Amino acid sequence: MPNKSKKHKKHLNKTFQFLERNIVQRLKKALLSITAVFVVGTLYYWIFEGFSFIDALFFVGITISTVGYGIHKELSVFGKFFTLALILAGLSIVLYNVSYVTALLVEGDLLRLLRQRRVERKVSRMKDHIIVVGVGKIGTEVITQLRRLNEPVVAIDSVISEEELKKKLPANASEVVFVRGDATNEDTLLRAGIKQARALITTLPSDALNVFVSLTAKNLNHDIYIISNISDLSNLTKFIYAGVDHPIATAEIAGLKMVEAIGFLRKKENIVDVLNILDRTFQVEILDITNTKLSGKKISELRLKEKYNVYIVAIIRGDEFILGPSKDEVLTKESKIVLFGEESGLAKFRDDFLNGK
Predict the structure, then answer these.
(1) Where does the RCK C-terminal domain lie (predicted)?
(2) What is the domain count for the chain?
(3) Which of 29, 33, 200, 215 has its C-alpha lying 20 to 30 A from 141's C-alpha?
(4) What is the DSSP letter of 324?
């Protein structure tokens, strides 16, 4: 296990090791070259020109910086030529290295490295989190709902930035760890903590990309639960072969819901949702009991479970919402009831009670 952990950590850092090495090496070279100029200059003035060590160090400093306090009285002719060379060498080295450090800050390489380190630290502390790949319209909504349930989330996207993601999310959903990168790449998934994640949701617009992400994720973590958006149902077998546990055809579901809504409108029903469980269709609907046989009755009198296998799960009365009402609750004509039950039972219930008095 320790070897596995070391291997994982090494793999996790691989993505930005080159950038880190390059920055560190160049910063080291910058410091060494500036130090070398100071050492050579100080030793020359101290040993050959007879300056005190402090005077020699000070003279090198003002020479390189071109502050110009004047030439030392005891400076030899050779010393003057050496000073001229020191000015040229010092200026070249200092200006080059200062411009490099400035470029690092302006181009954002250093900030990017620090940000990657910060993300790595956050992810290393996470366990059983959910990875969301792609933060388009579907991905953003998925993240919002997951954060509403206080689920820890790591988002991956190769196009948008962390700042853009935070703008798209509501304030209460902004605590999301963001990894910039291509999720089909193993390194990106490892940076997102794929090994310790419990689920991955991929919402990319291309079926090919979603399949590839799923294959890569399963290869890195066999136990991870994968939910994937599927655009073309003819690709369903590919998603299953890739190890997707729950493919969701978002377009088909949206189309079905729209057609159902038209059907319910025709029947003058207020359907909230339709569920299919074990090949049985259940509905959640809201009923206004004005001008029905329900007004003035106790819930217990209706014998909903025995006769219809239907339940009143809530009562809406003005701004009041009563969840799980008592059997002794009396239904008033100002009330609306939220019903849950099998489609056939609800149809029979409507026939018995909703045709007026």
Answers:
(1) 269-355
(2) 3
(3) 215
(4) S
